[in-house]
Design a protein that fits this description.
3 copies of one chain form a homotrimer. Chain A is an alpha+beta fold. Helices cover 18% and strands 46% of the residues of chain A. In chain A, the strands form 3 sheets. An 8-stranded antiparallel beta sheet of chain A has the order 6-2-3-4-17-16-15-10. Chain A starts with a strand and ends in a 7-residue tail after the last strand.
């Protein structure tokens, strides 16, 4: 059995939902973990929700076929107080003391395998206010569907090019670290938007990237550690 | 001529609109009454708005072909203060002192006849908070389109079954009455949703039902007495 | 270069957007001016934003092909504080100090010519609260798509006729001027709605019209002088 505040486990589902509708949930002895890749193989999420964030965590370790959409549906009808999540005879029972949602989980073997986390040298990084990053991605997306993410010195620049027009915004890094190399890569707006929304309440996010390399966002949502990695688009398409 | 607060006559129209777009309105010597059945013959409404709820009520008794949608439209543009409703030369004139809405009523003979109110033994009943009932119906409808309404002892249970999942909620009756028999019937979510919305502000509602029998909701909206009756769905479909 | 509060230049664009997606913007020595006709030749706008409304106004006089939709898009992502608008090497650069929006203007020769402002005798006029006018146009439009605008004595009457129903509202003129002639003309609801929205925050508007003649709305938005003129619909269609 797991007992946890509704909004904490909802935040866990929201991060996953930014990329995947279903995934393999690993119940460890003291952590819930998911590593998953989206259908198009463009983006990856890695998330850990630790035992310390639970009021109770006595569930047997194992693997669960997690239907993220159904989990969200179950949690959406629950009150914001603590909810219990229990595995019973092959089912998962969510309850907040008022509503009871009995759910048949997916067969894990029908879900994509967990990918191996790539180790990748991303030479430049900045630390940015999560809300400002989110609002910028939302604002600049009006004229195009690809975003250039550049880091130079202590500055992150986000820009979008339309047919004739160009929008850009510079944001100063909060850690003051001077990056030795200037880098820039191009990403799909849709992926940046979905992930930005999931990170919005995380205070600050650390953004790592390179020249025509993936971008990785590391963030912490009230003790839940997570990261998104997104592959670049080819500039010329 | 009738003079009444806009929100009272709007509430009257809202209850009707939950089931029918048009109906036969009976203007009695000291009451407005409608008894009407929806097009699919699944649900019935019976409502009385008494003279005491009006500031003036000097309209001649008679029958009016009521276009509920148009009445709503007329009332929606009026201020929330008192509105006058007057029959003049075959027309109905709504006015709040600013806007004047002149409406040609329907010919009552083109509208379905008033049904006879069935007398029906519904052995079990509970008294439930109207808002909690409304919120529950709205919440549990996410996974299916049929709702099981059960009464057992002092408890109402509402549940919906999806393809694999099940949501249920128990609500304790406010009158503490112990029901001698346990009953359950299945109803269309759509009818429960529409009627729940119309009853939301009524404080408490009394729910009567039986085993595979209709359900009846009795409620009072600020002095306006009304009831909805809904026929059950066959469990096996 | 022009420097102006974002909301002032946005209001300028909103007035234009009520009728045209693009127009010829005249930058005069101490004013921005547009006179433009909508695609259907039904309505005209004439607007002046004076140097006094700017924090700086050092832009060279000339004509600019103004893409109103793109200007709105650029201004929408800016903060509400001052924005600078600069012509640089054939481009227009908008900036609020955070976002930079670089825009390629339209070729003015591809845009409809500026019309000559007709001088027209409109014998009757009233002065009306802009918000009340807006709310009335919005409310009465529910039953039809043509609005009759009548002036008689000191009163403006707005009315819409549906298939069977009729809505009307009288509004007293604020200037107390008794009009010698009673006039009435019929107009498309859509034009009245769009222009009413653009005038809503202007305090009062002066409405001039005649018998089956155009209507002209004169208004002032925080120092920006503008007028809309709309041609009547033939009553019999």
């Amino acid at each position: 059995m797991m007992k946890i505040e509704q909004k904490r486990i909802t935040a866990f589902c929201d991060v996953l939902r930014a990329l995947v509708p279903e995934c393999r949930l690993i119940i460890g002895p003291d952590v819930l973990n998911v590593i998953a890749v989206d259908t198009a193989n463009v983006a990856m999420v890695n998330i850990n929700l630790h035992k310390a964030q639970f009021e109770e965590f006595t569930e047997e370790p194992g693997e669960v076929g997690m239907d993220v959409v159904k989990w969200k549906q179950a949690l959406d009808i629950m009150k914001t107080g603590p909810v219990t999540i229990t595995r019973q005879a092959g089912k998962i029972v969510f309850s907040d003391g008022l509503y009871t949602y009995t759910h048949v989980p997916l067969d894990p073997t029908t879900i994509r395998k967990r990918p191996t986390c790539p180790t990748m040298m991303l030479p430049a990084s900045v630390v940015i206010d999560a809300k400002e990053y989110h609002d910028t991605i939302k604002a600049i997306g009006v004229i195009g569907d690809k975003v250039r993410v550049s880091i130079k010195g202590t500055t992150l620049e986000l820009s979008v090019e339309g047919d004739t027009d160009l929008i850009r915004k510079e944001i100063e890094s909060k850690d003051g670290k001077e990056n030795a190399v200037a880098v820039a890569s191009l990403f799909s707006l849709d992926y940046l938007k979905e992930t930005a929304k999931a990170m919005r309440d995380s205070g600050t996010i650390t953004i790592h990237t390179g020249k025509d390399h993936p971008v990785r966002f590391d963030f912490d949502l009230d003790g839940m550690e997570a990261s998104f990695m997104i592959a670049p688009r080819i500039s010329e398409d």
